[in-house]
Amino acid sequence: MANVNLAVIYYSATGTNYQLAQWAAESAKAAGAEAKILRVQELAPPEAIERNPAWKAHTEAVKDVPVVSLADLEWADAIIFSMPTRYGNVPAQLKEFLDSTGGLWFQGKLANKVVSAMTTAQNPHGGQEATTLALYTTMYHWGAIIAAPGYTDQSLFPAGGNPYGTSVSVGQDGSISPDARGAVEHQARRTVMVASWVKQGLGQGVAQG
Question: What's this model's pTM, rounded to 2 decimal places?
C-alpha cells in the first residue's frame, strides 16, 4: 500500500472521543499508516469547564495533545473525525475549525482527502447518525472522498450497526461498550486502505477532474 498520512481529529469534553481516536490511531499504525492524534481547540468558557469535574479533569489530561491546525489538513491523505453529537449536529468547537478551512478549500487543497467519521451520545438514538451525516455535508464541499464503513465487517453489528461511521452510546458512568473497539479499528483500517488506493492512483497520474 502507498504510505498514508492519517490525521485523527477529535473533540471531546470528558474523554470518550479521545479514547476512540486512540483506538483508531493504533489500528491505522498497525495497518502501516503514519497517524497523528489531534484535538480541536476547546472554546467553552473556563467557568463552564470548572463546574464539571469530568470535563475539567479531561481538559487537564490532554493539555499536551497537539491542537489541530490547517497545516495538519494539508499533510493528511486521510482524516478520521471523532466527535460527540450536539442536538444531532457537529459540536461548535469542531464547526469553528471547519469554518476556518475556506482558504485551503479555495486552493483545492482539501480535494481528494479520504474522510471517515465517528460519533458518541448518551442514548442509542441520540443523534449519532445525523451528526455524522452533517459532518459529511462539509466534506462533500471539500471534494473529499467518504470512506464510510458500510456493512463491510461483522464487528459493526454488535457495535450498533451504523453504516455511516462507528457510533457509541456512553453510559452515565462514562463507560464505552467493549463492542465499539472492533468497529473503530475496522473503520480505521478501511480508511487507510481507501486512502492508499486514492494516493496510489493519483501518483500514477489518474485525472483529478
Answer: 0.94
